[in-house]
Amino acid sequence: MQFKKIIFIILVLGFLLLVNYYVPRRMNPYLFQILILIGINIILAVSLNLINGFTGQFSIGHAGFMAIGGYTSAFFTFYFGRNLVPSLTSILLFPWLAKSVIFVSALILGGTLAALAGLIVGIPSLRLKGDYLAIATLGFGEIIRVLILNIDAVGGARGFADIPGYTNLFWVLFFMLLTVVVIRNLINSTHGRAFLSVREDEVAAEAMGINTTYYKVYAFVIGAFFAGIAGGLFGHYLMYLHTNSFTFMRSIEIIIMVVLGGMGSITGSILAAIIFTILPEFLRVVKDYRMVIYSLILIILMLTRPQGIFGLKEFSLLTIRNIFVRKEQVAK
After folding, report:
1. Is the pLDDT of residue 182 over 90?
2. Can you tell me whether residue 136 is helix, strand or coil?
3. Where are the domains of the chain?
4. 149 CA to centre of own chain
5. Per the CB 3.0–4.6 Å rule, which of 91, 230, 236, 307 could disulfide with 167?
6. CATH number of 2-331
7. Are 311 and 268 contacting, i.e. CB atoms less than 8 angstroms apart?
8. How would you class 244 by CB atoms within 10 Å of its CB: exposed for 0-12, middle for 13-18, buried for 19 or more?
């Protein structure tokens, strides 16, 4: 069984390498950028869904974690990564392999610091509930943004420029799949049952002996880690970072994807991230009325489907099979 898993992982990695080789050469650069942003938004939406959807918290500070990961990984590759490339190339023989090791190390460093920030804000804040927690996480996100504005080493108010362009389609798809698989497996584990019990009834969960504070902080740390990874991918794709990309409204956009996809549905978050990354681009043809129409679509969706597109359900190959089975039964 273990051997089959290894073969499957190798095949998936090989497929991602082929996609990374052919797609950028055949796709319009504008459409390719949207594809990259879709992958990054899926990471953000799925990771936030662990906090807001599966654990029942209400965080508005996800852009802050994204900023920490983005600036930390960019700082590492800008100041240290370039100097490490020659020495690593002499060991690993291939420059692309040396750059990949540096890039992955930078992303993990950024994700780890974002997770540490999630722990720091989580321990005192997650004793709060509802609106109070939302305000606390909102304040945290703004504190991070203002702190970055006053750090000259990462550009301050000018922004952080000349970041190495290490992000490609392979790394975006790889970390997107990793995020989905890790959070899916986590939700289907005993830890996932604890997350869901905290969401459904925190008092009852505590009465059953579940350490609710621990699991809320745990969800916060995991969600923050993947948000940091997304920030690193974002910075190394645009090769420029500015705090305007991590404002309060950025956190709201991610929350919209989670809520409209379905609070507690991974596939819902994926679909919503795709829709709400593409939708503003389609609406560019209406120019001045673009954001008005965008807002109306959100309102209509919330009125007609308040539980989100998928609600608490997941979409899989089994779902497709069940649909066809039902059709056959109706036909008979």
Report:
1. yes
2. helix
3. 2-331
4. 23
5. 236
6. 1.10.3470
7. yes
8. exposed
